[in-house]
């Protein structure tokens, strides 16, 4: 008889087998899951873990400096800090321990007030940043605070607050050379040299990472630099900032004195074409761009084209002499007006009886009628070709942003009036830089040097790039150039600058210009003028060219209104650079015959 109440041996074996299978399956599941976590998903999970504790930050490469010819900083970079935070850990406020070991706890509202007080930002702005997304691991609360604000922030000891180093652009001399340097905005370089040489000046950012704990605090020693930052290069200019400051002051005073709308001064070194000062009245302060408007944001010397008037007569004379068609002694019978068979008419600035003038006298008296006789001794195509060689009709070698090429149509498109008017600087346009370059060429014995505003860019590795060319181009013969300089010495003692007090101790060659402004219907000339004086000193050994121009003067509309500014500026240039006084008597060529 079989016993009851006890499982059979077969049953026990079956249950044992099932249990073993279940245990094996469970272990297999764990093994598979472990393999999946440690092998299959390892990279992804590690990345997620690192992503939650690893923070990547930018290492900023500083923007390079712009300096004057003596190394004085015109534009530089200053240290600033962005204040960032981790909102997720900020909601509970923070706790800090003082020097005595006493703990202090602050609420989120109190922390926001402390941050606002340190940075000068509204409390509401700070709270908005910290509470906009309470689970966020990053928010920038304040941008570009100074070192004082940074020190105040760090002294708070807020664990979830992170100042990040950044930079800001600064211009130590304000408006001095602001028209040339340009400025940097939120979207990067906006104007001037900042824009033209952005590739030289811009730094290259790097990156680094650090890890933080569960409480959001940065783990000591966890910072790893992945890419080093590279600072931008130093842009070396030819500008003398001290001279530039003086020129801007003198210019602004004279603009006000004669009631002009604007004025420009160019100081150029004869031997190499370098610009020592390029001043525009009302120049922009790059530190406060919004305070300036319209044309004051640019460099009128480079970007504004104007009809230069009689300063062009020196070029017309040099062309005729170089082609063998005239000489300083060329004789012309000059009335105060001249009528042409095609119906045109020109006149001199003042009525006068018929005069017997030499070319020297024509330049000294600035006779439009007289220079028309000289200009017609050569073809209009020849004069056009020389204008091109003198640098007209194209931008200068500086290639300044927005630089004007002036207004110069091919000679084949000149009508009869333009043909004549172009001899004395009307019907054509030039920038102040182009006009100054004409006088540099004449002063340099007929060799035009490339216009220079920049010496080069010195990279962080010491290599120099963007160095300008030093190769000059002969435009007219040395004799033709010297003849023009000699003739221009007559302007001050007995020509259109006769009333100007000479610059004591120096022989100066100069030419005035008075050009009507075409602003009426159909481009007709109105009652406004652009007046100017271009000069060379010392005449017997030319070293510097000075050009002053004023737009729409009201108290006196003749070129003589520009004489005081020219005299003051040329005197300062000669004094600043300690130019030796003239040791020879001034050249005096016959004005009449």
From TrEMBL:
Where do the Penicillin-binding protein transpeptidase domain residues begin and end? Answer: 263-570
The answer to whether keyword Cell division applies is: yes
* Classification via Gene3D superfamilies: 3.30.450.330, DD-peptidase/beta-lactamase superfamily (3.40.710.10), Penicillin-binding protein 2a (Domain 2) (3.90.1310.10)
| Keywords, sorted A to Z | Cell cycle, Cell division, Membrane
Q: Name one Pfam family in it.
A: PBP_dimer
Check the record and name the InterPro entries matching this protein.
Beta-lactam/transpept, Beta-lactam/transpept-like, PBP_dimer, PBP_dimer_sf, PCN-bd_Tpept
Subcellular localization is given as: Membrane
Penicillin-binding protein dimerisation domain residues are 59-218
One GO term of the biological process aspect: cell division
Q: Which family is annotated?
A: Belongs to the transpeptidase family.
User: What is the protein's given name?
Assistant: Cell division protein FtsI
Organism, by scientific name, is Frondihabitans sucicola
């Amino acid at each position: 008889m079989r016993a009851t109440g006890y499982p059979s041996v077969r049953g026990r074996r079956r249950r044992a087998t099932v249990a073993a299978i279940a245990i094996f399956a469970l272990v297999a599941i764990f093994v598979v899951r472990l393999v999946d976590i440690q092998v299959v998903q390892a990279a992804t999970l590690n990345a997620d873990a690192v992503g939650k504790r690893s923070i990547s930050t930018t290492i900023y490469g500083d923007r390079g400096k712009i300096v004057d010819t003596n190394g004085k900083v015109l534009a530089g970079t200053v240290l600033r800090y962005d204040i960032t935070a981790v909102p997720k850990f900020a909601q509970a406020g923070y706790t800090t321990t003082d020097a005595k070991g006493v703990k202090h706890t602050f609420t989120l509202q109190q922390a926001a007030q402390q941050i606002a007080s340190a940075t000068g930002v509204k409390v509401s702005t700070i709270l908005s940043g910290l509470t906009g997304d309470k689970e966020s691991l990053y928010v920038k609360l304040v941008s570009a605070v100074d070192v004082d604000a940074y020190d105040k922030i760090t002294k708070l000891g807020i664990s979830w607050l992170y100042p990040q180093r950044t930079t800001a652009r600064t211009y130590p001399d304000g408006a001095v050379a602001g028209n040339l340097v340009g400025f940097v905005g939120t979207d990067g370089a906006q104007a001037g040299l900042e824009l033209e040489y952005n590739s030289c000046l811009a730094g290259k950012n790097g990156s680094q990472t650090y890890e933080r704990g569960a409480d959001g605090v940065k783990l000591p020693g966890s910072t790893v630099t992945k890419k080093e930052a590279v600072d931008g290069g130093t842009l070396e200019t030819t500008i003398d900032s001290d001279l530039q400051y003086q020129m801007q002051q003198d210019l602004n005073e004279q603009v006000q004195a004669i009631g002009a709308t604007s004025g420009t001064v160019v100081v150029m070194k004869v031997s190499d074409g370098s610009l020592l000062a390029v001043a525009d009245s009302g120049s922009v302060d790059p530190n406060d761009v919004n305070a300036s408007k319209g044309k004051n944001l640019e460099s009128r010397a480079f970007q504004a084209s104007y009809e230069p008037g009689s300063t062009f007569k020196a070029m017309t004379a040099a062309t005729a002499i170089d082609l063998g068609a005239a000489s300083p002694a060329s004789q012309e019978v000059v009335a105060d007006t001249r009528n042409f068979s095609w119906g045109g008419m020109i006149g001199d600035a003042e009525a006068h009886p018929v005069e017997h003038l030499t070319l020297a006298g024509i330049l000294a008296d600035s006779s439009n009628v007289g220079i028309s006789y000289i200009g017609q001794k050569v073809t209009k195509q020849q004069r056009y070709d020389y204008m091109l060689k003198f640098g007209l009709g194209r931008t200068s070698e500086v290639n300044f942003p927005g630089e004007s090429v002036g207004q110069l149509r091919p000679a084949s498109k000149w009508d009869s009036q333009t043909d004549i008017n172009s001899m004395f600087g009307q019907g054509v346009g030039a920038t102040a830089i182009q006009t100054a370059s004409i006088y540099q060429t004449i002063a340099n014995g007929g060799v035009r040097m490339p216009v220079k505003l920049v010496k080069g860019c010195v990279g962080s590795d010491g290599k120099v790039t963007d160095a300008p060319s030093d190769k000059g181009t002969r435009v007219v013969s040395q004799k033709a150039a010297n003849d023009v300089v000699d003739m221009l010495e007559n302007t001050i003692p007995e020509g259109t600058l006769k009333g100007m007090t000479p610059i004591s101790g120096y022989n100066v060659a100069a030419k005035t210009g008075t050009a009507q402004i075409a602003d009426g219907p159909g481009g007709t000339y109105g009652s406004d003028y652009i007046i100017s004086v271009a000069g060379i000193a010392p005449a017997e050994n030319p070293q510097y060219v000075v050009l002053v121009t004023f737009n729409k003067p009201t108290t006196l509309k003749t070129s003589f209104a520009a004489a005081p500014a020219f005299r003051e500026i040329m005197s300062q240039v000669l004094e600043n650079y300690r130019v030796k006084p003239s040791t020879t008597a001034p050249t005096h060529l016959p004005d009449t015959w």
